[in-house]
């Protein structure tokens, strides 16, 4: 079993060593499994339980103060499962696997995905909001009222930089806070192979200060994750822009074109930046090995095999 994981592309982490140790442990957990699908689920479960990462516990807070989780998984036979907008679900990748393996569908959302998780023994009703994320949200004078008021509030916050919240200036424009906040590292992901088949998975808490109910690239097949017989990929970064170019599918397409994993990752990020002028990262696993590329300040990865 070979496994590669990422901890999200974004700002450089303040304490990279402990985060790297968790990524290494996630890879170790994945390589202990018997199938690639089991490997990516097990690896992501480690990361979803660690508040250092923006998935599961410690996920990003949406405009109504709720953490909602999304995930997607795909195997090289092009079977897939995805879930989104799940409050109180720590292990979103496990719910996505249920959709993949136990239903005739490819995508289940919201409260229905939470009910599905509960019926299959995946814990629900988990408090995903850490003290740090709660304080950061409350500091930003969160909105009341409906979506229009929420949109006015997030206009200078969402997309203004995941390493800190934007603040309103007197003229209504966005200003950078002098006090830097802890970085949001967008999503976690894993790709695995047993030498015969592949699996790819991505899990997230989204992006801070997004409109309540916002869904980004992560559970969208071809954007946050993709897998074929050529290999698999998992993407991370600015979700709307990743979805616009279907970044993970582009990376796997380059494997199909004959590039090795590292060249496919490099080409995908070069193309992404040229089209969007935005920030992202991608991990790729093919028959030749693993590759990763990013154009942000940081993206930590770990690779292991048995």
**Uncertain residue segments:** 161-183
Give me the number of helical elements. 9
SSE order in H/E notation?
A: EHHEEHEHHHEEEEEEHHHEEE
| Helix-and-strand structural type | alpha+beta
Helix content: 25-40%
Strand arrangement within the widest β-sheet reads 4-3-2-8-7-1-13
Strand content: 25-35%
Overall 3D form: globular
Question: Which structural traits does this protein have?
Answer:
four-stranded antiparallel sheet; alpha+beta; 306 residues; 33% helix; globular; seven-stranded mixed sheet
Note the topology.
Elements lengths: L1 E9 L5 H16 L4 H13 L19 E8 L4 E8 L4 H11 L4 E3 H10 L11 H9 L7 H8 L11 E3 L5 E3 L11 E6 L4 E7 L20 E4 L2 E7 L1 H7 L1 H10 L4 H16 L3 E7 L2 E6 L3 E8 L1
Parallel strand pairs: 3-4
Antiparallel strand pairs: 1-7, 1-13, 2-3, 2-8, 5-6, 7-8, 9-10, 10-11, 11-12
